């Protein structure tokens, strides 16, 4: 049984019912002790939900009906400025999620990659990270208020006699005794840190030379125990009628704690930047690994074959007519593979009416290889509006599955069908290839990527296949119909 200590009030801002229920399931399966879960379907619902309720942490979807991206993080920070925020993003929205961290979010989770352990760990770490940051900021504020209300170490100095006197603040702040209240000019040289002394003296001499009465500076001041404290010094110089200084009054404020807090806040910002950098590097490495695998397993093998054939031609001229046409064919195929690989790395521009054209271009590319014939049936009702992100998701699913068919299915024919069905979009991709056992191969990288993309939009995936009977993927995605 979960401990009842440190139970949490959790706010989930998510408009997708499927994603919300999935998060609920992960929370139930996790080690988190949750008292209440509040659910907002849009940003405008949040003020009412939090009224009278203490929220310990927020899971925030970056794509809401009335708010999106960084605007959502900023809005939520204004409403719950002391509450940690973990943003939810799709695999294509990692850059926005990283930017959200720089605007006050504590961490982010990628939809499709969440499980109960990752969710529990992320929420716990985010709460702790926010608590540390709030303590640092609160300590800094308290220190500033106390410093304003407390008497500084006051001092005065007589230029004629070369003797000065401290107020009793020197005793409380720096550990000196009443015997140390009076000092001479040499005291300052021994008390100011050697690295700061020359600069501080030159500062005062500049003011004297230019008849400037007020000065301020920061330096390190030695305590009676021999260590140094960071201090903020202010002074006022009195000039005689002859223009020469005769008195100087000043104060010393101990800012050691403030400086420490400032350094810790800087370190927190550096650590956050490191987090953003690490995430960027991971995303880049993942893309490079996938590209490297494609180059090694496909293109490199084709070029190695061409090299072998050409070597045989060089060593045996009699095989020239036999091997040169084959080499030429492999070179063409390699060029075609590189062109296709380059094209897959660039997202197409999908505007209001470009999805059908983009899919037609994709199908034409596959048909040009003369190994697989693909037919496209596109039947989207005119009053159906599909947002650009969903269009790109549909395009990537078709692109990925056609690549799978071309590489692994040994199929001759394939059919892509995209149509609107009431409030849903229906996509099917069918081939007459060798098929497979879905229970054994449904967790492959390609099918897993397709499933995660569909689940992000609360859709469903049905895989129909068997050895020797081809494969059909049926996808249904909820979509709103405009009036």
How would you characterize this protein structure?
By secondary structure, this protein is of the alpha/beta class. The chain has 4 domains: 8-147, Rossmann fold (3-Layer(aba) Sandwich); 151-254, 2-Layer Sandwich (Beta-Lactamase), CATH 3.30.450.20; 262-346; 349-483, 2-Layer Sandwich (Heat Shock Protein 90). Helix content is 49%, strand content 23%. It is built from 14 helices and 16 strands. The strands form 3 sheets. Strands 8-7-6-11-10-9 form a 6-stranded antiparallel beta sheet, sandwiched between helices. Strands 2-1-3-4-5 form a 5-stranded parallel beta sheet, with helices on both faces. A hairpin with a 4-residue loop joins β6 and β7 (163-166). The longest helix is centred in the middle third of the chain and has 60 residues, at 256-315. The chain is elongated, with a radius of gyration of 35 Å.
Which key terms come to mind for this protein?
single chain; 483 residues; alpha/beta; Rossmann fold; 6-stranded antiparallel β-sheet; 5-stranded parallel β-sheet; 14 helices; elongated; disordered N terminus
């Amino acid at each position: 049984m979960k401990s009842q200590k440190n139970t949490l009030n959790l706010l989930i801002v998510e408009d997708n019912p499927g994603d919300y229920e999935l998060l609920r399931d992960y929370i139930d399966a996790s080690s988190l002790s949750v008292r209440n879960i509040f659910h907002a379907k849009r940003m405008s619902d949040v003020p009412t939900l939090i009224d009278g309720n203490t929220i310990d942490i927020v899971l925030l979807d970056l794509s809401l009906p009335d708010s999106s991206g960084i605007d959502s993080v900023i809005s939520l920070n204004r409403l719950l400025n002391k509450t940690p925020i973990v943003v939810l993003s799709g695999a294509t929205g990692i850059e926005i999620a990283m930017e959200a961290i720089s605007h006050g979010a504590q961490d982010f989770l990628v939809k499709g990659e969440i499980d109960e352990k990752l969710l529990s760990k992320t929420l716990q770490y985010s709460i702790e990270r926010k608590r540390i940051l709030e303590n640092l900021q609160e300590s800094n504020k308290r220190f500033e208020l106390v410093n304003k209300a407390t008497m500084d170490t006051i001092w005065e100095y007589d230029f004629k006699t070369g003797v000065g006197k401290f107020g009793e603040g020197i005793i409380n702040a720096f550990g000196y005794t009443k015997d140390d209240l009076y000092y001479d000019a040499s005291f300052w040289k021994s008390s100011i840190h050697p690295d700061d002394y020359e600069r501080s003296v030159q500062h005062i001499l500049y003011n004297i030379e230019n008849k400037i009465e007020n000065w301020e500076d920061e330096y390190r001041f030695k305590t009676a125990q021999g260590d140094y404290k960071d201090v903020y010094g202010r002074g006022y110089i009195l000039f005689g009628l002859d223009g020469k200084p005769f008195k100087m009054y000043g104060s010393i404020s101990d800012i050691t704690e403030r400086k420490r807090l400032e350094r810790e806040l800087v370190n927190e910002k550096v650590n956050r930047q490191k987090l953003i950098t690490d995430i960027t590097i991971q995303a880049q490495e993942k893309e490079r690994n996938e590209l490297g695998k494609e180059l090694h397993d496909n293109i490199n093998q084709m070029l190695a074959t061409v090299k072998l054939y050409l070597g045989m031609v060089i060593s045996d001229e009699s095989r020239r007519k036999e091997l040169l046409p084959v080499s030429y064919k492999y070179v063409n195929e390699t060029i075609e593979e590189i062109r296709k690989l380059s094209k897959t790395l660039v997202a197409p521009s999908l505007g209001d009416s470009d999805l059908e054209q983009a899919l037609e271009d994709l199908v034409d590319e596959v048909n040009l290889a003369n190994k697989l014939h693909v037919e496209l049936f596109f039947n989207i009702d005119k009053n159906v509006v599909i947002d650009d992100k969903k269009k790109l998701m549909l395009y990537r699913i078709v692109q990925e599955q056609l690549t799978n068919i071309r590489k692994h299915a040994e199929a001759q024919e394939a059919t892509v069908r995209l149509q609107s069905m009431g409030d849903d979009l229906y996509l099917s991709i069918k081939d007459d290839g060798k098929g497979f056992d879905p229970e054994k191969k449904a967790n492959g990288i390609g099918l897993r990527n397709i499933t995660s993309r569909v689940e992000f939009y609360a859709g469903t995936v049905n895989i129909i296949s068997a050895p020797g009977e081809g494969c059909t993927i049926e996808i249904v995605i909820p979509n709103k119909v405009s009036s």
